[in-house]
Every structure is written in C-alpha cells, then in structure tokens.
C-alpha cells in the first residue's frame, strides 16, 4: 500500500493531500516532520495518515490550547 497524508482544516474539511506518497509509514512520518511548519503556514490545521484508503491516525499541527 501507499502511505499519504490528508490535509485538513480544524472542522474536518479536506484541503488537499500530500503531494507525494510513501512506501513506508516511517517515510511518511519523516516527511511530515520536515514539512509541518510549512503546512501550518499554508493554513492546514490537522493531518490524517492514510495507508491506502485506511485511516491510521490524525493529529493537529498546532500547539495544545492553540485553536489554529
């Protein structure tokens, strides 16, 4: 399967997908570690990791207590 990130607003609206797909979860997570600040600057609030079509987990790109 291909791993990818779904890019979302706080209310759950999808605003895009990661421009690339990854062969492993570790590669996807490394990419996010390198790019989360830029995504947040582009008004992405949350991301959801997908393994193919299956949701693995989601997370906020903001500090706890920061609504975005």
UniProtKB/TrEMBL annotation:
Top-level lineage group: Bacteria
> What is this protein's name?
DUF1508 domain-containing protein
| Native source organism of the sequence | Actinomadura meridiana
